Amino acid sequence: MSDEAVPAIKPSLPEEQPMIPQPLVELHGWGRAAGTMSHLAQIDSVADAVSALRKSDSRGVVPRGLGRSYGDAAQNAGGTALDLTKMNRILSLDASGDPATVTVQAGVSLDSLMRALLPFGLWVPVLPGTRQVTVGGAIAADVHGKNHHTQGSFGNHVRALDLLMADGEMRTLTPDGDTSTLFWATVGGMGLTGAILRATVALQPTETAYFTVDTHRAANIDDLMQQMSQGDENYTYSVAWFDAVTRGRHMGRGVLTRGNKAQLAALPTKLRRDPLKFVAPSLGTLPEIFPNRMINKATAKAFSTAWYLKAPKDRVGELQNITQFFHPLDMVAEWNRVYGPNGFLQYQFVVPFEAAEVFRRCLEMIVSSGHLSCLNVLKRFGPGNPSPLSFPMPGWTLTVDLPIEHGLDKLCDALDNEVVGAGGRVYLAKDSRLSAAMFRRMYPRLDDFLEVRREVDPTGIFNSDLARRLELSKPTTGGTT
Predict the structure, then answer these.
(1) What pLDDT score was predicted for residue 334?
(2) DSSP states of 133-158 as a string?
(3) What local confidence, expressed as pLDDT, does residue 414 receive?
(4) Which end of the chain is more exposed for a tag (fewer CB within 10 A), N or C?
(5) Alpha-carbon torsion 304, 306, 310, 314, what sign?
(6) Are 212 and 264 in contact (CB under 8 A)?
(7) CB of 151 closer than 8 Å to CB of 136
(8) How far apart are CA 77 and CA 37, in angstroms?
(9) What is the rounded distance in angstroms from the CA atom of residue 303 to the CA atom of residue 309?
(10) CA-based R_g, the chain, Å
């Protein structure tokens, strides 16, 4: 990739001013584990970001949004984290295009974007499990949602992005043409090719802010996987909760929830008066009072049984709002505190469809391990995209939330071996403990990413705890890290 192939924009900067040293603060991911001390620089403008780059030391800088990656991707021990949440303006909306598009600064949250777009009958095409994610973070992690099997991941819908490079230039990248290689390395690149400062995202039309939802209970994991395999193609959105505590013939019993956008004609009269209303109730903030081991055999069993039994055996055509269907956990701010001071690990992996037996074996390993998880998700992925570090691939993906306890590392290492043996991988936005060697085996296109990274940031100015752990910061030659 030559400099001539990548258009560069020299930011117009004010006279260089001495930067006030930023204090060290502890930063951690949403799992509240593996925290480290970083300098946190509040970034209000491109000039701020460039100034922070110029004054960075050997520990470098990492972009940071709302801190919703679960692991160590947005922290930088001894270095600087660029807090981009104040760059949160919606810059323009082209509602007449096909598709409609919106251009935003990278610090805009999906929550703010959805609230602004719904009155125009426009919809964000991919939503992860929380709205409290910035657009920049959604691109850097290439987040996915309940509709990957039909819509792909977030990067599939980005039409252009402005990337602040290690040399202080800002380059506009698109998914096609001369800048496509750097574009796709940035999508899913975890902030290691530069800082995303602006993006243009394609949107979808919607008549309502509601969804027509079908819910079915499944007796065990085989029943659940069979139902999903035979019916997901009829729904835009599909997700299942499964029981990771119960053993025996009911292991993996679950609740399958699938839906489509509700048409205006499907709404009752009361809802038709304001069909695009954004319903986002709040139950307050969870206090910092919970001890470690709040999730134990008794509480996990009680929760899992109650969650399974409260779901209808079969219910078709229920209307649900955005929060009910997509983001029930967003109703409780700081819900991660329930795991106590030690925090938790969210372990998410994907294996190909043909490795269904490996998938079942991994579930059995989790259930029989003694490590307890209540918030468990099963989905089916569709085709991946050109990003070398994007997580989704065609197959089964499982997510469990495991409290940090003695022996958890051994369980995860054993799961890693099963996953990589089946040609699968774990999700970097959730990870805080994967080894560099295992990472390389899981992501066969890693060298493609490293080649781009070496070219655009040869001295490793953009750096993070994740990058150092996975040896992405080391000088590389040939096929070794």
Answers:
(1) 95
(2) -BHHHHHHTT---TTHHHH--GGGGE
(3) 98
(4) N
(5) positive
(6) no
(7) no
(8) 5
(9) 10
(10) 22
Record the tokens describing residue 397, joined without a space: 């993906």
- CB-based contact 353:402 (threshold 8 Å): no
Q: What is the pTM of this model?
A: 0.93
| Domain regions of the chain by residue span | 210-263+270-433
Three-state secondary structure readout of 372-389: CCCCCEEEEECCCCCCCC
What Cα–Cα distance (Å) separates residue 160 from each residue in 24, 108, 109, 277? 34, 16, 18, 29
Over residues 185-244, the pLDDT tens digits come to 999 999 999 999 999 999 999 999 999 999 999 999 999 999 999 989 999 999 999 999
Position 293 scores a pLDDT of: 82
463 residue type, one letter? N
Q: Rounded to whole angstroms, how far apart are CA atoms 126 and 385?
A: 14
Task: Look at the block and give the residue holding tokens 């709404």.
Answer: 267
User: What is d(CA 402, CA 181) in angstroms, rounded to the nearest whole number?
Assistant: 36
Two tokens at 369? 């391990």
Q: Which residues in the chain land under pLDDT 70?
A: 1-22, 474-481
Fold of 210-263+270-433: Vanillyl-alcohol Oxidase; Chain A, domain 3 (3.40.462)
- Residue 329 sits at φ, ψ, to 5 deg, of -70, -20
pLDDT digits (tens, 9 = 90+) for 353-373: 999 999 999 999 999 999 999
How many CB atoms lie under 10 A from the CB of residue 435?
Answer: 13
Within a 13 Å sphere around the CA of 272, how many CA atoms are in the beta-carbon half?
Answer: 7
